[in-house]
Prior knowledge:
Blueprint: E1 4-9, E2 15-20, E3 26-33, H1 47-54, H2 68-74, E4 78-83, E5 88-95, H3 99-111, H4 117-136, H5 138-147, H6 172-185, E6 191-197, H7 201-212, E7 243-250, H8 257-268, H9 276-282, E8 286-297, E9 300-309, H10 315-331, H11 334-351, H12 354-362, H13 372-383, E10 417-420, E11 430-437, H14 443-463, E12 467-473, E13 476-483, H15 485-500, H16 519-531, H17 546-554, E14 557-563, H18 568-577, E15 583-584, E16 597-601, E17 609-616, H19 622-643, E18 649-657, E19 660-669, H20 674-686, H21 693-701, H22 710-723, H23 729-737, H24 741-752, E20 758-762, H25 772-776
Parallel strand pairs: 2-6, 10-14, 14-15, 16-20
Antiparallel strand pairs: 1-2, 3-5, 3-6, 4-5, 7-9, 8-9, 11-13, 11-14, 12-13, 17-19, 17-20, 18-19
Helix pairs in contact: 1-4, 3-7, 8-13, 14-15, 15-18, 19-20, 19-23, 19-24, 21-23
Pathway: Cofactor biosynthesis; pyrroloquinoline quinone biosynthesis
GO molecular function, one term: hydrolase activity
Domain Coenzyme PQQ synthesis protein F-like C-terminal lobe: 627-687
Amino acid sequence: MTDAINTLTLPNGLRLTLRHAPHLKRAAAALRVHAGSHDAPARWPGIAHFLEHLLFLGTARFPLEDGLMRHVQAFGGQVNASTRERTTDFFFEVPVSALGSALERLCQMLAEPDLSLARQHREREVIHAEFIAWSRNAEAQRQFRLLQCVSPHHPLSGFHAGNRYSLALQDPAFQRALGDFHARFYRGGQIHLSLCGPQTLMQLEALGRQFGSLFSAGEMQAQTPPAPLLDNPLIELEASRGGLDLLFAHEHLPPGAEQALDLLQACLNDSRPGGWLDALRQRGWLQEVHSDSLYAFAGQLLWHIRLQLQPDAPPAEVRALLHGWFGALRRLDAAALNNEFERLQHSRKQAASALELARRDSAQRPFEALDAQALKAFKALLDDLPSGEQGQWQQPHDEPLLIADLPVGCAALPDDLTVSDILPVERGFATLYLRWRIASPLRQRFHAVLSQALQPLLERARRASLQLDFSLIGEHWQLRCAGMPGAVIRTLDLALEHLRHPAPHLLHTPAPAEPAHIPIRALLKALPDHLREATIQPQPACLLDLTVLGQIWASAPRHGLAIGFAGAAQAALGAVLAHAPGLPEAPPPASQPLPARRWLHHPTGGSEHALLLFCPVPAHDEGAGRVLAQALQGPVYQRLRVELQLGYAVFSAFRQIEGQGGLLFGVQSPQATPGQILEHLLSLLADGVTFDPAAVRALAAQFEEPAMANAEVAEWAWQTYLATEPTDLSHLRRSILRTDQPILDNLVKRLLDAEHGWLCLATSEAPDARFEQILSV
């Protein structure tokens, strides 16, 4: 089934793009305002970002407790916003039935905001907390230093996020500037709204016209042209600690330059033989690579390649190879490159969510091949890049991971693989989980080797919109692959070959340095390991050997789950799994309950405080646990972020982790210690919640397979499988609908009593004596 698209302009000037995508389960809206931080008065840096925040705080018609964020969360959707240099984006994804009510709230809050001074004071502190976190984040500061390479006359070199000092709320001139910015840019002609979902074009158009008309009329205003990006030729940045940043700046590119860069990056990120990445790996120089666009506006383009190299890699030769590859690209047939790109874009479109499609449409960058104008921009972009002759290059053959048909093969599935039919075959989405229990104390060192062996395939899979990861969780190695069934089977075949036979030189290649995470993300990454603890064993001081790896694989108990495979797909999967390493076994018991209350210190390297509180809920209480988590979302956000202003990273939700379901609370704060955060959370939990029958019915509806994203269905099935307590979605819905006020009150009491344990994972040691009684009951 193909998508149907229509674009029109409303009488008030608003541009409306509609996408009927019948294969989608959810609907989404993306609204782009053509104004960003560089369009604000230079005297008031941060005013655009500040306004974006203020718009979410509710209006007279939809106060905060019934505003867009709470409304979307109540339907299990997602919502966010982003202020860039020349655009501000607002976007959400919800069940199909909620598109109209969410769109009304979005348009109304943007068209008729409440900019009262009291709200401004509260939200300025949130902006300041973000500023502090940004100023302490190494990755953010590295990118800021990159932007200092452009001309000091260009706004990119300045500061535009805002903080307590740049947002002068008491100055009448600031208040006039804030109101003028909204009046000038938040009107019809400056807005592009895209709607995407399985609804008909007529239904989408009716919603777009009804709520898009809330904006005042006005033609699109030309945004002020920027100063030149460069005053002098762009300097080459020095490598530091194996990290090499390559920066590229362009002026006066023709329209279509952003799409042209998409094609260039698709070629750049191709890990197959014949390209630049393969050339670096063949020389043993490359650990990791990332490329991204930093800025695009009015013919200007600034983009960046970030390399993590081995210590002996010569940066000058790395650059020379890249210049040689650029030169080879110029000589290749652009039409042939575009044909491959078209297949790649088709794969991305098939895998994209409603939200991703809507955001692409609002940015006028759909998942399509380059048109004639963008091909001209591609040529201009290549002509503007440095060129050389170094290296031997070839155009790769067709990517097999883009082939949708099933591979040839026929064999029975192994006994250790459980097959789930929770996803109908017509969804065209399959997921395979394989897990091995590795008793060897060398599991961590060999995992690093195998991760490097898989790295080129991981890059190819990501490029082809397949989900592939190989993780270390406690004593287990876990492989997951998801996407269209034929592509999953082909990817799995290649992955298993790399896992069985990694290149020998990788045994002695240093593992890439772990990228720095902000504290709350570092805690989230570590949480599964602490819920399924590995036995701590001394690390043998020995050289790694492929013979030892073979012995580990030969004795590794294996089990797994296949979702979305049927008939011929199961036969083809069986042929691939016949060569999977390991010994078949039944899945082990689920994680044991946590022992009472535990406080674990997990250093993160960040300067801010962070805490995760995980409160397990027994499987038979999952429905009530999800109702309680939903009821707490709003109060937790309101108390900790809005009223107490502890920080901008505040969340609460029901999560399944390593087969264990429970309530997860997370806070990152520049000033509140983990102990103080815990005290606030427990106080809020002690207040209890009020049962809301309508919210419970809406929650139950979220757990019908047609309403859930395919990846969410697969992950729920995997977590249920790990829990070793067979259940299905209908059982969960009934459990949710049986919940009432007494059940909620009882669950709150049991959580406060830590009847099933707690886990506090924090950036500091256990709190002081005030909390000894809480933590020792």
